[in-house]
Amino acid sequence: MALNCIFFGLGVVGQDAARGLLDYGVTISGAYSRTSHVGEDLGTVIGRAPIGVNVEPVTAFEARPGMADVAIFCTTNAFDELLGDAMACAEAGINVLSIAGNALYPWTFQPEVAERLDKAAKRGNATILGCGYQDGVMVHLTGTATSMTTDLTRIEMDCFSDFSRLGESSTERLGLGMAREAFPVEESVSAAADATRPASTMGQVLDALCDYIGLGRAELSYYLGPVVAEAVTPNPFTGDEIAPRHIIGMEEVVTATTPEGIELVGRLTAKLFAAGETEYYACRFGGAAPYELRLTPAYGLEWTTGCLVNRVADMPAAPAGLITVVDLPAPRFRGVAGPR
Amino acid sequence: MALNCIFFGLGVVGQDAARGLLDYGVTISGAYSRTSHVGEDLGTVIGRAPIGVNVEPVTAFEARPGMADVAIFCTTNAFDELLGDAMACAEAGINVLSIAGNALYPWTFQPEVAERLDKAAKRGNATILGCGYQDGVMVHLTGTATSMTTDLTRIEMDCFSDFSRLGESSTERLGLGMAREAFPVEESVSAAADATRPASTMGQVLDALCDYIGLGRAELSYYLGPVVAEAVTPNPFTGDEIAPRHIIGMEEVVTATTPEGIELVGRLTAKLFAAGETEYYACRFGGAAPYELRLTPAYGLEWTTGCLVNRVADMPAAPAGLITVVDLPAPRFRGVAGPR
Which superkingdom is the protein from (chains A, B) (predicted)? Predict the structure, then answer.
């Protein structure tokens, strides 16, 4: 039976996910947006023939039991934003799949929000899950790449992404083109093993990965800072040029030490690329016989969409409540066997 | 509770696996060998302190219910060899874990043998599973690396291995040092989607991978042939030199086309390495946004052991019968959370 989805958020990822789901034969019966594309047909919005689904303002949304199997949220990165329409969906029995980076492994980050969502989802016998690139690549692929070794001392991940592919609004905030000193949010913080965590995409990845391979909760250190240009770099958003030593991106570095003494390092670099640079994901595994896993090229945006679309089929049978990707089997391509 | 294992086969992989399991805190209560090391203490055999387990001749083995949780077979590559002691173990309720390459996905290869083993295992409420490098790397890691894409047209695997690390007996058979024409088993065969398969490590990998990602049974073509030297190559087994155009290894190439039109290619190269060559595993994924996964260096032997040791913890809860790695969750490092 064809799965029936409703959609929240029609930015780059939302539109791409809508195309992917339609190609998989999933029915999309509703689409909601804050302002953009309201009143347009979803098919037209994603560059295809009309499908008879008009984009409605999100303020008009009302969750009703049975209206969909899965509600897909491609809205913001904030976990607590799920307390709105997403929680209403779950309470009405509609499973929720979100690409919010902070929904990947949220119990250690915002436990009260997590508990409210969990209870609502259990009342509705529905599942709330955060997924995306981090699910397929950083947790499951990386976790499976530990299966060959019995002597693991260190995992060091490196995710190298093209800033120009993010939306302009994401990039402006981070001081693109400004002098290094002006980077608005540079900071270093730590969190003990039993402490709640600061907002951090990579921090949640490391917490999830530790859980996945059965390690205890780690002590974490977070660093967020600017990446500066080595040479003159074109700014694709403004057409200006950015001078050397001025900001062309950001990096987040999270370091974890588990109670078992295993070290994890996650580095997320997002910057304007120089000629010849491409996105990649690399992970080095330390131990008696160290090795590296490398994905080239990587596709930050497309893989976020791909992981989302390939998770939809897992939702109807997933356990009720707020779960994480660690609770589910490894994701896989579903283009043929998946939801139809 | 500590898992209790018995061991069959004390070649390179068997010895390495015994070390790995002891390091994981698994109890080894028996070890059986055709001839080598009979009468020695297993601890001594693996280069450690004695552990009070004498290696017994395999002819003396008698399966008794409750004697172990898992029997580990590091003996031959042949699936039907499991009809002996392995089947007796399963029938007595002892789970069987084998590194036989042809036990990875055997239902399409020797269905009658598979059925006999399956029935025996079900009578004993035990599990029989083939695992190894192919499990962790070629099925689960490769399968998980499809999770990012919704447009997959082709998977092309390349496993590049150092022949000198295999046992001498494996290599002699393949005509090392002989002229190209003398390669004893060069052949090309095909198997329709509904046909039983010839013996082929890579063929079973492709069948397993298709199953894992939900593709139908493919039509397969198999090629097995020699790899010849480009320059003078030392033969580490004999100390001789092998002249150019003479055999330094073998390659197996299996090509599959699924009913959905997806192409899979598996290439297994095992040869004497020139200076600077290292083992690797690479896999290219075709589609609208193609990418490559690469593991460098790879460790053929160590990873076979590692995948075996990391699977032991899955055995007690695995479903009864002859199963495959496709029926189990993705494997992962168990050094800390695993069997103790």
Answer: Bacteria
